[in-house]
Amino acid sequence: MNWPLLVILVLAAFLLLMPLLSYLSARRSVGKNVAASINGTNIPSSRLVYFYSAHCGPCRQMTPIIDEMAKKHEKVIKYDARQAPETAAAYGIRATPTTVLVEDNVITEVLLGAKSQRQLEKLLQRIS
């Protein structure tokens, strides 16, 4: 048996399955109720929640866009997934960047990966 080939195939399968597992986890989160307050702070019942991490390349591109949107809209909230692991777990976050649309404290859409400002503004219009 060719062991190096087997190892390469197993690693390739693993790398292909990881995004699939993140996607399936995101799909399971849709329809889930989430808390109206986090750490004692009340948050809007309809909101756009962005999860990022400092070491994530796509997050570094997307975070300035979210920061600008958050200055203009109180319904835009961001969390560092490593600094707020309980919050990330409550939303079912397994990868960053992830953007979650919450309407009346129910997750209605989960977007994985970097998104453009245009895509984010369309989501925000749904709850404004």
From TrEMBL:
<dbReference type="InterPro" id="IPR036249">
    <property type="entry name" value="Thioredoxin-like_sf"/>
</dbReference>
<feature type="domain" description="Thioredoxin">
    <location>
        <begin position="24"/>
        <end position="128"/>
    </location>
</feature>
<dbReference type="GO" id="GO:0005737">
    <property type="term" value="C:cytoplasm"/>
</dbReference>
<dbReference type="GO" id="GO:0015035">
    <property type="term" value="F:protein-disulfide reductase activity"/>
</dbReference>
<dbReference type="Pfam" id="PF00085">
    <property type="entry name" value="Thioredoxin"/>
</dbReference>
<dbReference type="InterPro" id="IPR013766">
    <property type="entry name" value="Thioredoxin_domain"/>
</dbReference>
<protein>
    <submittedName>
        <fullName>Thioredoxin</fullName>
    </submittedName>
</protein>
